[in-house]
Amino acid sequence: MSFKAIVAPLDEAHEIKVRVLWDALRKDGVDLPEASIPHIAFHVSPDYEDAALDQIVDGLAAHNRVLRIRTLGLGVFPGPEPVGYVPVVRSPELSDFQVAVWSAAAVACETPIEFFHPSRWIPHVTLVPHLAEATRARAIERLLAEDLNWEFEVTELAIMSATEDHEHGFIDRFALQGTARNF
């Protein structure tokens, strides 16, 4: 299944940090998709109406200012295919922004992915989309040795296309242009 998402690309310095980590993990034998883009996802659906989605994200970017982001440590989503990630601190401003994205995007799709509902959303940057059992210990050991306590600014939103294999691509990007507090 393919889907689209409203995401925040990382700034250049932190995108490079993630890509360097991915290269190190690959050298350790961890299987990672080649066409991934580091990001924070706010809303995901397999069935957006494209024109409405573009208009919604453009409006969100026009009316919201740059967001300050802090990350803290390492997290793992459990399950048959665990996911390793960098948790993003869910500040009140970030939570309010995500509620605004969820509410605005609701009119552009029939089937939003419920993990991104404001009551369930855990902001994060995915590092390892599938922590395979054979390389799980090596991957976690490598990630635990890294400084994953970051601070940066999100300066734009993007519409991303993706597959269930975590192959990503940006469809369009929108600079955050607001000057007042987001909410």
* Unreliable spans: none
How many β strands by DSSP?
9
Binned, the helix content reads 25-40%
Strand order of the largest sheet: 2-1-8-9
Radius of gyration over all CA atoms, rounded? 16 Å
Principal-axes shape call:
globular
Q: What is the string of helix and strand elements?
A: EHEHEEEHEHEEE
DSSP helical segment count: 4
Structural class: alpha+beta
Provide the β-strand percentage band.
25-35%
Largest sheet: 4 strands, antiparallel
Give the rounded overall mean pLDDT: 93
Distance between the termini: 35 Å
Please, could you describe this protein's structure?
The protein is an alpha+beta fold and 183 residues long. 29% of the residues lie in helices and 28% in strands. α2 (50-63) runs antiparallel to α3.
Brief description of this entry?
The chain is of the alpha+beta class and 183 residues long.
Give short descriptive properties of this protein:
4 helices, 9 strands, three-stranded antiparallel sheet, alpha+beta, four-stranded antiparallel sheet, 183 residues
Which helices and strands, and how do they pair?
Blueprint: E1 2-9, H1 12-27, E2 39-45, H2 50-63, E3 67-70, E4 75-77, E5 83-87, H3 92-105, E6 124-128, H4 136-144, E7 151-154, E8 156-163, E9 168-175
Antiparallel strand pairs: 1-2, 1-8, 3-7, 4-5, 5-6, 8-9
